Amino acid sequence: MSTDLNRACRCALSLLLCSALLPTLPTNTHTAWADDPTPQATMDYESEPNDDMKYADVLRPGIPFTGKMYDRSTEMIHLDIDMLTFSLAKESEVRISLTTPSRVSYQIYDEEGEPYRTPSGNTISGQTELGKQTTTQIDCGSLPAGKYYMSVQSTETSMWNKSYEVLLQHDGEEETPTLPPTDPPLAPEDEVISITNGETVGPYTFAAGQTREFKFTTSEPSRMAFAFSQLPSVSSGETLHMALKSPEGKTIQEWDLDRIRTTGICGDFLIGKGTHTLVVTALCKVSTMQLKLTFDPIGSFDYETEPNDSFDTADTLYPDKTFAGVAYDPTLEVFLPNDLETPVMAEAYDYLSLSLSSRSSVSLELATQGVTEYKLYDSNQHLLGEGKTGSGNRKTTVSCGALNKGKYFLFIRCADVNTWGKEYFVTLRTTHGTDFENALDAALGKKNGASWSSDQKNVYSSVNLPSAGCLKIEMSKPESSYPVMEVYDTSRNLVWSYNARDEADSSKSTYSASVGLKKGTYYVCLRAGTTYISKTLPFTFTLTHKASTNYEIEPNGNAQQATPLKLGVACSADIGNAKSASDKDFFKFTGTAGKRYDIILAPREGLWDVSDLYHVDVYDAAGNFKDCSSYDSLPNGTKRAVFQPTANGTYYIKVGSFSSEQVHYSITVNAFQKKTPTLKVKSSSIRRNYWKTGRFSNQVTYNGDGDLTYRSSNDKVVSVYHDGTMLTWGFGTATITVTAPETENYKGATTSFKVHVVKPSSGFKYARKSIKVPWSGSFSNKYKNLSGGKLTHKSSNKKVATINSKGLVTFKGIGATTITTTQAATSYYAKSNASYTLKIVPDTPKIKTIKAGKGSLKVRWRKLSAKQSSGYEVRCATTKSMKKAVKKTVKGAKKSSLKVSKLKKGKKYYVQVRAYKKVGGKMYYSSWSKAKTVKTKK
User: Fold this and answer.
1) Do residues 322 and 352 both lie within one domain?
2) Phi/psi of residue 119, nearest 5 degrees
3) How far apart are CA 484 and CA 497, in angstroms?
4) Model's pTM, two decimal places?
5) pLDDT, tens only, 721-755
6) What is the C-alpha separation between 764 and 833, in angstroms, rounded?
7) Average pLDDT in the 304-333 region?
8) Which residues form the Fibronectin type-III domain (predicted)?
9) In whole angstroms, what is the distance from residue 136 CA to residue 257 CA?
10) Cα-based distances in Å from 544 to 446, 473, 777
């Protein structure tokens, strides 16, 4: 294009776009409407939104209210509802005039939002006439003081986008003033007024020639609109001139009040960041004007860079970012004589480029101010498609379909004089996941975002499984639809599908399904289950994989695709719900004629049971149905089918489901073998007192399914009953045999134990269990609990002591021995033994004399025989307790004296002597002698 950059930049910076070029205002923007209001000095206009009682517009008595039946959100069905409100300070006669060009419905409500009923019980409601300009008088009668609401509603095409007028009249007073006064004082001086986003200022009056500047600041490029209310009527002749200026003071747009008097809105405008000014000048006296400003940040634009009139110099389009250009080239202008401002022929064109990193669905949004031609080329400059926009200000969406990865060019040419020097805007929209070619790359374990819309009801993603196993698909619940989940192989053949329709009304917040697959790459399609989608439905989904060599492999919906089973190995599987009618699971195994096979279906992943699965069907290789001998329930929600082939070969198992959700289960085919049961007794040998009465038993553990039998080897000693309890009959030993029979499921087994029926012990024992006696001493030890049986005695060490048949003990030497007495059995008591330990020690030596010396003493004692003694020990201490005594040893039985030196002088000492005998390396000591005292010399 031309190099007149000043003009192009000036146009681009203005960022002007008329309301037809841009989306609707945000829902919080209040818009005033009026097609042809009744001439009045003052008129109220509706402020959107006003579709519920919370946002109801106010009716003021005697002041006409103008509204319009229009709502962009319900444009497809031509439905709009406006809510109006009025208040009565006292009971009043109320009449409402409703002027409409076609049919609307109306109704009066009380303060609680309930339809108001007259004393006779009637509601105040009705309809105006269809397709005809009429004024309907609504006589409400006498209404009590309070607040009321009035609804005005229409679904008629003839009423759509048409204005209506409401006039409230009553003989009372308003309950509370709801609007500012309509006759503010004049302010003839020029003013500068700051206004913020969403703020309403005014109303203002203007003297002729008076100017007010309304300044506002945006921090980033924004979409802006001015909404006016309490404007003077057309008949008043009052006129305002308005100019929107940039931060640099340049005029972006100018207009007079007449341009907005019937709409109440001026916009939309695209403005850059900075402080802008709306300059309002009264061309004559103006009675009232109220202003509200709204703007929304829209992000920055990409602006064209000249030259861009060829493929080589094309500007770049980026996804989801708006590109702004200017249709202008001064070298192509042709002017009429005497008119150097209006070109007769206007032609200008730009080239834009766009690049796709993967196959994508592409659309272009064109916002233009006149007829504009567009063409799309591929990277080789081959034309792919072309078209034109309509005349006037409009927004055109061009669907380019699915384009492959690569570079493309967009040609833009102004086609009439109305686009000359005007901005146009292009927004590139790309969508991935719409088909196999542009499938999303869904990494395992990653949460992905996607959405359905009216023109995109499928989301495709590709996933690579590193090994065979289970692919789990989880997705959040969209607002008003449900998914059909599909898996395709790389040849785009359908492998598996799952219809989640039956889960749509459940309270779960997610949909989830699993499928067994081989190693490799697959496509997952999440398809909207409903055909009509009125808005975008966002959702997230996650794909996870669990490796397993024992998982069903889809597709396995027929015998040819059956998943092979290993005997005795559980195979995990998932089956779709009743809506996924094509999902039948087939498995196969090799069977041997005459052999029994148990087909086990078990729940998994939190499932309680497998009751929602059909009875398994078994077929032979020729497709003939084979009966199972039984199909029964086992513990823990498990089911079993018993099958016995009549011939060797491959057999096929079909599993189906009538569940409302996917069923997670496992299937196992066991080649039946009788089990060896556990059969054991608690005690292998039992001793039973003959005299103990009543039955007794031995605990038996058995996990088979047969009835146990019991047998005694000697009923004269012990008899056994059918329940395993026993009863004694005589002394002796009997063997009890327990037998488990062979059953359909278990092998036979036996075990046994012995029962010894014995006489009781009389409790025979000695009164003392241990006795210590000196060589010259004597002792006695009495019997207890004699039964009358013959007694026999013996000594364990006859070198120490012997015992005769009468129990008399004779000492033989120093040492220790055990005396044992055996009491023979009698008719009533068993043989029993009693014993005690006998220790014989030396006699206690006696001190003969003690002679004191200077710090010493000498003690003499009566010596013992060598048979009793090996030596002596002497101890002396200054205390009677012998604490801290000095101890001396004298070796030799013949020694009889000892001198103890190094004692304290002049101290009293206590002296003791004892003998010892060493026998077999062990020492035996006599008792200490009685202590004698002596005082050492100083």
Assistant:
1) yes
2) -55, -25
3) 7
4) 0.42
5) 999 999 999 989 999 999 999 998 899 999 999 99
6) 7
7) 76
8) 841-938
9) 31
10) 8, 7, 95
